[in-house]
Input
Amino acid sequence: MNVPDKYNKFVFSQLFHQLAKTDKRFVINYGGTAAGKSFSAAQKEIICADMHPIKILVIRKVGNTLRDSVIPSFLSRIRELELEEKFKFNKTDRIITHKENGSEIVFRGLDDPDKLKSFEGLTRILVEEAAELTLEDFMELNRRARGRDNIQITLTFNPIDEKHWLKKHFFDREDPDVEIIHSTYKNNNFLTEQDKQQIENISLFNNNQYRIYALGEWGILTNEQPWLVSFEHDRHTVERLPVLPKFPVYLSFDFNIDPLTCVAAQMSLHQGAHDSFIHFIREFSAKRSLEDLCRQIKMTFPDHTLFVTGDASGNRHDLAMADTNTTYYSLIQSYLGLSRGHMNLHRRNLPHGESYMLLNSIFSSYPRLLLSRQGCPLLINDCTNARIDINSRINGALRKDREAFKMDLFDCMRYFFQQYFLSYSSKIPMGKMAA
Output
């Protein structure tokens, strides 16, 4: 983008000029706090909209967050660039329109019911706080942006976690369509010395936070309120676990639609002996029908004896089903071709506090409790990220929300231990759990 001469009277940052000169499809605008990433990105999009009749989509994961920060930032940049007379803002539709050339800057969250309407005729996409998105979110955005030449997608974020899909997708492989631009507060000439010192002071309290927010380097996602305190990644995970042919497979289900989840485990029949084991060998997590999920399970374990447990809500009749006398578990039993004796169901789910004691006691003391990194990556991620809900009055409450901490696979694991190890855990001395 060649910036028109009329903008020469304004002082732009080095980051703005880097963003302005690249014409690659993907622009990775990442780094530390106070680097001016969002500020400079907004300037570029506004100038693009002033130069040509285009349609720009500005995205965040959750739509309500646009109102508090992103939209006010764009309106401020418009005033600073002395373009108030050229643009108008429709607060209801969340669209900034250029009065002369018809350019539109459309603000949407991926959770907006009408989000798909915003994708038609796009020229540019700006994703703010891109680390909030899943890989599936991004792939859908990219798919919607096909069919036009010279579309550019800019992703702005702090590099919070070295295991994030953004690093694997854009940094760990070569791609000629990607421009990576790194910036920190040190590149922002508009900060005061006091501002810079406050950022430097982060190093006094948290090295990981300093690496992420001051240096703009990939950090390690930390959990300050761990729920599964006995979980140790090196001790409890291995790269791969074979499916043992002579042992049954134990399935545990959770019945949220987005996603529908199941974990598969194998275990020795004798519990707590020196050679006892529990292996979590496979996870299933996707937006699919229960019948499709069961079909995949049968294909994965065609010759194994299967046992089923899971969320107690699966025992209830669902009015949404064609046959109101049908339950999720009766469907699973039918789809998998199981007898009633293979359905190990409980009537209520264990309260979080009791589940907290159960899982932590077993993870701390069981001879061989392993999760496959190849077969259960999302479950392992749940074990790492499971947090105590500090806002709950219930001891041991597990923090959940449908955006950041779904914990569906983790719930599958909780139901598994409730069904098969509740009596065993009562035999574990409390001192051994704390060890």
Notes: The CA atoms of residues 191 and 197 lie 10 Å apart. DSSP finds 14 helices and 14 strands in the chain.
